[in-house]
Specification:
It is a single chain. The chain is 42% helix and 19% strand. The protein is of the alpha/beta class. The protein has one domain: TIM Barrel. The strands form 2 sheets. It has an 8-stranded parallel β-barrel with strand order 1-2-3-5-8-9-10-12, surrounded by 9 helices. A two-stranded antiparallel ribbon has the order 6-7. Helix 1 packs parallel to helix 11, helix 6 packs across helix 7 and helix 10 crosses helix 11.
């Protein structure tokens, strides 16, 4: 079994400047996390957070963090196919990968938040899964085109003609993350294009079922299922005492009893280790701890000092 990886996962659209994200990412790096991943959204969700000072662009943020961190994997969970045409996205990701020395990963999905599209004038077609499939083929095709050759593509939604397929990323190809709990098409896309299949915010039985479907999809196309990372993301509230956990719940506007009953990492280090350890035993290659309050650097340190050493 490969060495498991542990990442923080953040939601900056709730209200976090670049400086706040930088301090958080650097705290995660100091605390021993393997990666910093952020959502790619332009509008806050819910009424608890103000969303101020306003949204930050995910790939602009990651470009900055690429120069101000040294070990963290950096990426999105997930960028929406509605935001950027695939040729431009391929250039952005390749450039940030160069800037980071080869530490970038791209999570890509169909998008779902109609209100943010309305707020910023972004087209939001009703049917988006075909866009995702074409973008995945184009991105991997551009990055995989040998130097000196060109890449062309003609689909129902995108057409590229004799692209020089530049710039090249520092990695042979930045790992692509496909996620979601769909029963058929999502596991099939992960098997065909992705380095990682991520299941966010679902009960363990759903996680295990979708992982199994992705492995079966790999076998159907002749891919070794062991080459596809299976991962999970869960919202996290932890602390050395129950009072610490309660304080953090209040700071993020959630009812602790309800939160604890959901599919989360919650409680003391022992409680979090118990649940996380079970997921690792069941096949998780990477765990994402979703942390909402990006000003609470002590939360990051608690996980790094009290939880990660036990899981490693």
């Amino acid at each position: 079994m490969a060495t498991p990886e542990f990442c923080v996962f953040t939601e900056p659209q709730q209200g976090a400047s670049y400086d706040t994200q930088l301090a958080f990412a650097q705290a995660a790096e100091r605390s021993g996390f393997d990666g910093f991943f952020r959502s790619d959204h332009f509008l806050k969700m819910g009424d608890f957070f103000s969303g101020e000072p306003g949204p930050t662009d995910a790939w602009t943020t990651l470009a900055g963090l690429a120069r101000e961190t040294s070990t963290l994997r950096l990426g999105t969970l997930v960028s929406s196919v509605t935001y950027r045409v695939p040729g431009i996205l391929a250039i952005q990701v390749a450039q940030v990968d160069q800037m980071s020395g080869g530490r970038v990963e791209l999570g890509l999905g169909t998008g779902w938040f109609a209100e943010e599209h309305e707020a910023y004038g972004i087209p939001f077609p009703a049917r988006r899964f075909d866009l995702l499939e074409e973008q995945l083929e184009i991105l991997t095709g551009l990055w995989g085109t040998p130097a000196g050759e060109t890449y062309s593509f003609e689909g129902a939604h995108y057409r590229l003609t004799d692209s020089p397929a530049l710039p090249k990323p520092a990695q042979d190809a930045p790992p692509v993350i496909v996620g979601g709990s769909g029963l058929k098409r999502t596991p099939a896309l992960a098997a065909r294009y992705a380095a990682e299949f991520n299941i966010p915010f679902q009960p363990e039985e759903v996680v295990l079922d979708r992982w199994a479907r992705a492995r079966a999809a790999c076998e159907e196309i002749g891919r070794d299922p062991q080459t596809l990372k299976t991962t999970v993301a869960l919202t996290t509230l932890g602390g050395p005492t129950e009072a610490d956990v309660q304080r953090r719940a209040e700071a993020t506007g959630v009812d602790l009893a309800e939160f604890r009953a959901q599919h989360t990492f919650c409680g003391s280090a022992a409680e979090i280790v118990d649940r996380a350890g079970r997921l690792l035993e069941q096949g998780a290659d990477r765990l994402y701890f979703q942390l909402i309050d990006m000003t609470d650097l002590d939360h990051v340190a608690f996980l790094g000092e009290e939880v990660l050493p036990q899981l490693r």
